Amino acid sequence: MTDKKLHVPVMADLAAKGEKPEYLYWVGCAGAFDDRYQKVARAFAKILNHLEISYAVLGKEESCTGDAAKRAGNEMLFQMQAMQNIEVLNAYEVDKIICTCPHCYNTLKNEYPELGGNYNVINYTEFLDEMIQDGKLKLENNPFKGESITYHDPCYLGRGNKIYDAPRNVVKAVFGDVKELKRSRSFGLCCGAGGAQMFKEAEKGDKEVNIERTEEIIERKVDKVASACPFCMTMLTDGIKLKNKESELQNLDVAEIIEKALEL
């Protein structure tokens, strides 16, 4: 952890020194445990370090927000997980929380307040967009010259919280343009893993939702597809593999695009 770009402050360590960061970065289960999304969490941490943002993570004190439990109908388990997290967050007097997962974002922002967890919850695409608009994040390098990209709207980011423009603005800041899918924004097609679907067997049907979405992306004839959700990344990457298009089409998270543009 000697590399400054990889150094991630932990809330307990800062509190022990009497320091309080401006932001808490909520990593989420995928950012902590999923090999692919760990790369996204690292990318965003590098960006925060590059911007010299005052932030920290909870580390071992962070637990699942309870999103999957709630979607699956286990309200008691959700409230147990939520109350545990709220106790930790309030003990640190947390105000601003940045999330790289739309499911965590939605739960912390819209469902924790009724349980006593009131925070200023920010999605990382809006944060990145603001940093770019304010000139704090200067993107002078384009490592994707000549390549085209589309963007897949995560349900909990788009329809769930009406965040459509921020992620597109971030991608456009590097690529210059986003080739829209035929089903996008409020008419976007789900990747197939929301609502706790990630953790259950598929139901009977003619086609998996992620395959339907992947076929739409392939039809768009682009080199890259940007996403902003760990579930979407898993489902789209699986779809691309199943269609044997790995050499032609790559799924990148919005944070990874900025990381590569900044050469972090």
UniProtKB/TrEMBL annotation:
A Gene Ontology molecular function term of the record: 4 iron, 4 sulfur cluster binding
Record InterPro entries: Cys_rich_dom (IPR004017), HdrC_iron-sulfur_subunit (IPR051460)
GO CC, one annotated term: plasma membrane
Zinc-finger is among the record's keywords: no
Annotated ranges, domain Cysteine-rich: 23-109, 149-236
Transferase found in the keyword field: no
Keywords of this entry: 4Fe-4S, Iron, Iron-sulfur, Metal-binding, Oxidoreductase
Signal peptide: none
Protein name in UniProt: Cysteine-rich domain-containing protein
Species annotation: Marinifilum flexuosum
